[in-house]
Specification:
homodimer; Aldehyde Dehydrogenase, Chain A, domain 2; globular; disordered N terminus
């Protein structure tokens, strides 16, 4: 244990870690310290945890100058290293962004705490009472890329739900993340929450990611936040359960019985409100009997969206390009849309079963039977009737904040917030029962 | 796809599969056929699924002579191969065991169906209604050892909850499992449930297990049912989520304020009712201020239990042997018990935090504060006040049947029955909402 303790001290000193520290030893030290602190956190009242988070938010505001200074160096290095303008924008902080980060921590502090909630309760013929009670998962690992606000967001969600967290941010934001982490845990400690519940990986050694993915028994769940290659690597290599979001190949089906004006509005919004979000529509399916297909594509073309259609779609408008087979499985995250004319609800269901990534699929129709079949038979995390797929978001779902959107099938699905950071235990209340 | 189709035909023909079929191709073929059939199953009413299971149970009863004949050959081979008497007993079927297997299928058919249940529902300020609805997980893989009744049990639980299942049983029960599978799916098909929802691996090639563990995207969850080495292998190698039960190092703490008679009864039952079950107590912790420690150990010694104690415990009775350090982390599954005298509730919590496997831990006390601290601070799947740990069982919890007991933290914890074989989807009901 000596080697472990040493690396923990290193980690907590805020200094640079010796690059020769074994990444597995480093992760074990951080995780063990976090787990011990989590047991203290779990005993605290929900009010104490909330107040400590408000103190953490206040500490972020006070530390704004320090965070901005650290961030300026990260931005300078990033520009020198040739980061794209979009990446530099994601990296850059300003006073408004720091205020937004602190406000988000305050908002998480104000959310209802799921810990201690009784899921169900029953009594047995022998008089025993059984109940399932929500408890924190334990230690959550977050592996994320350039946005520094994830440091504060993810930590706040974990602490609110009684969990410890091990944060591993991207190298381009290393100084910013360290400054944010340092301010936040200072505030938490003022509120009596041990600083060790929020652990921060103090090295950019990429082998640490591998060590986190292998840390079965030390980390209970890993949430990757970033691009597809990061998520795919985490899913492929993890020996720890992963809550992850992969593709959002989302369909909107305009049924023959759709209200044409409503369909136009929903289709335009689902594609063009923001093309880079995971809830953006990527394929439009139009019932061959829908009366006004041109009315659907015209506003998209006007808005500058490239349309790639099947043969029947191409006949609607000469500006529509022919789709390649790969288009039906493409997540463009851009102003590009594949469009197919399908033979009614049946045709839409067949297309979606084959091509949907199981994220968010929507139907527009005034026909209740068609809507109810669609909502029941489409097996995606989110199924929508008569609304834009861009609502696929924890905030829009009233969850207050989200740790991510899960496209897996177990534990939690769709937007995941505080409840998804908990599990349950069975409490059995007896009066001397023995089993015959 | 031709190779896949061929192996599916092989699999469904009931014949022996060419040993040169690629295990990954075989698993893909079986899983794809099962997934397609599952989509049909998911559209059926709960009544249809229940009636088909009753027909499956009837088919098992009718096929009893065929199953017994197949089983007799398995038993003969097993004895010739030198299987232990205990393993032969687990393998052997008789008319009563077949009736019990059929009755268990009937019982699962009669359970409440979780599919379609609304978990929660809310409405947003913009008028959208959101609800979470339970849906089947999809395709469940079961990897099990010698007991042939698992073939029927696991299949029934999966079909009741709308899932397809891929069964991979042990080689020693191959003929029995095949006969049970064949009868069961015949009955299901009579009830309109496609036989392909219950897939059976038609080869004993051990590489198939590896292929199942790697079948991410084809199999949604794997449940290993068997000894510790099987479970450990599955957990180490799976690229698919695993619902598994590992150790049950279960503690019972007798507090200073326990009722001595109740404590004696619970302790004796928790250890000696059946020593080989996962809910059996493996360590007894006695508060140093509990007035009658000898009254606790005497009935255990009388019942033939070997006791291994710490120094303070050894002074209670000369028949108690000194414990080695390894005893505090041992799952004996036998008439052996480690016993420690601890300094009150605090001492018990420290010991349990360090040594519990997180399965089932119990306190015996008349002190409500001590009980409530124990139930809240012990972080195990099942925590019990004033009852025997041997109640850790899905049937005893009123779940009707169980697919297993989970010692992991995500998705489901403790006894897992039909609800644990479901996930949920978000249904969003709009009236034309677009996101600003």
């Amino acid at each position: 244990m000596d080697a472990v303790s040493t690396s923990v001290e290193y980690a907590e000193s805020g200094g640079t870690v010796d690059q020769f520290v074994d990444p597995a030893v480093l992760v074990e030290g951080l995780a063990r310290a976090g787990r011990a602190a989590q047991r203290q956190l779990a005993k605290m009242s929900t009010t104490t945890r909330a107040e400590a988070l408000h103190l953490g938010a206040a500490a972020l505001r006070r530390a704004a100058p320090v965070i901005l200074e650290a961030n300026a160096k990260d931005v300078e290095d990033g520009e020198a290293a040739g980061l794209s303008a979009a990446m530099v924008d994601r990296l850059r902080l300003d006073p408004a962004r720091i205020e937004a980060m602190a406000a988000a921590v305050d908002q998480v502090a104000a959310l209802d705490d799921p810990v201690g909630r009784i899921i169900d309760e029953s009594s047995r013929p022998n008089g025993m009472v059984l109940r399932r009670v929500r408890v924190p998962i334990g230690m959550i690992g977050i592996i994320y890329e350039s946005r520094p606000n994830v440091t504060a967001d993810a930590a706040a969600l974990c602490v609110r739900s009684g969990n410890a967290v091990l944060l591993r941010g991207g190298s381009e934001a290393a100084r910013s993340n360290r400054a944010i982490h340092s301010a936040l845990v200072g505030g938490l400690a003022q509120g009596g929450v041990p600083a060790e519940v929020v652990q921060f990986v103090p090295t950019q050694d990429r082998a640490v990611v591998g060590a986190m993915l292998a840390a079965s028994g030390l980390i209970d769940m890993i949430v990757p936040r970033g691009g597809k290659s990061l998520v795919a690597r985490v899913q492929a290599d993890a020996r720890v359960p992963v809550l992850a979001h992969l593709d959002g190949i989302n369909h909107t089906f305009v049924d023959r019985d759709a209200d044409p004006a409503m369909a136009r509005g929903i289709v335009l919004n689902a594609k063009m409100r923001r093309t880079g979000v995971c809830g953006a529509m990527e394929t439009l399916l139009v019932d061959v009997l829908f009366p006004d297909p041109h009315g659907l594509v015209e506003p998209l073309l006007e808005a500058g969206c490239e349309l790639r259609g099947d043969a029947r779609t191409c006949s609607i408008d000469p500006r529509i390009k022919p789709a390649e087979p790969a288009d039906w499985d493409a997540e463009y995250l851009d102003a590009v849309l594949s469009v197919a004319i399908v033979d009614g609800l049946e045709g839409a269901l067949t297309h979606i079963t084959r091509h949907s990534s199981g994220h968010t699929d929507a139907i527009v129709t005034e026909n209740g039977d068609a809507a109810s079949r669609f909502l029941s038979e489409v097996d995606s995390a989110i199924v929508i009737h008569n609304a834009s797929s861009q609502f696929a978001d924890g905030g829009e779902f009233g969850l207050g904040a989200e740790i991510g959107i899960a496209t897996g099938r177990l534990h939690a699905r769709g937007p995941v917030a505080l409840e998804g950071l908990t599990t349950y235990k069975w409490q059995v209340l007896g009066s001397g029962q023995i089993r015959p």
